[in-house]
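Q&A log
Question type: sequence-to-structure
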Amino acid sequence: MVYWREAGLTYLKYVSVASQAVRQALKEPARAEALKRTEILFTKREYKDGKTGSDRTKIESVQ
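Response status: OK
Response body:
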């Protein structure tokens, strides 16, 4: 059996933990660049009559 499974982790959780550890081990400025890539931006567009509106709304969290 794989060691991450024996530790009670799913593969996705294992990869997430490992990736976070690697990012924290990097020296600057590589760390700053790696941390930028972890941010996720969600936007919402309103549609009217089959056309997109001009406004984009930034969504802080997905529920």
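Response note: The CA atoms of residues 4 and 10 lie 7 Å apart.
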